[in-house]
Amino acid sequence: MKTILVAVLISFAYLTACSQQPTSQQAMHNPYYSRTDTQKLHVDNAAWKKILPDQLYAVSRENATERAFTGKYWKTDEPGTYYCAVCGNPLFRSGAKFASSCGWPSFFKTIRPNSVLYLADNSYGMERTEVRCGRCNSHLGHIFDDGPPPTHKRYCMNSVSLDFEADSMKR
Ligand code: FE
Q1: What's the rounded Cα separation, in Å, for the pair 39 and 136?
Q2: Starting at the edge strand that comes first in sequence, how are the strands of the sheet with 106-107 ordered?
Q3: CATH number of the domain where residue 65 is located
Q4: Does 53 or 5 have the greater pLDDT score?
Q5: Which residues surround ligand 1, an ion (CB under 5 A)?
Q6: How far is the CA of 168 from the centre of ligand 1 (A)?
Q7: For residue 125, what are the domain limits?
Q8: 63 in a domain, yes or no?
Q9: Is there a domain that residue 139 lies in?
Q10: Is residue 106 part of a domain?
Q11: Confidence (pTM)
Q12: Enzyme catalytic residues
């Protein structure tokens, strides 16, 4: 009887926790994922490797790039918020997303100035600026100066690095 009671209590606790979590698979099994905690994370790659799906690990921790026109968000325009898929940090609102012909989801501004970090990237013989998550330091994509007004910036992101929640899904 005691065992059954414990099992019921654990199930209830699990369901309660899940109802407060985002629905994406990676977020549900990631203890560092939070859309409200702004504390910077210092988690090493060995730990992330155990938590993140392979493609997300390759992009976020090894700077891989998903193929253009293949990601799930490159042409979406539904109202909502884009969070870091690794840690849940709010990154972009849909109102800052614009149709770009580059094949990756593109935005002209972040939600907050410190939503992201910028690093010089001279790999592949190019001078680019890498964009990383301001909370977990994961690679998101690059920023270019050919975006639309008012900022004229183009945050060129990997879809796999983003976790989208539509406004219509908010409770
Ligand atoms: Fe992050």
Answers
A1: 9
A2: 97-98, 106-107, 154-157, 139-144, 128-133, 116-121
A3: 2.170.150.20
A4: 53
A5: 84, 86-87, 89, 133, 135-136, 138
A6: 23
A7: 23-169
A8: yes
A9: yes
A10: yes
A11: 0.84
A12: 156
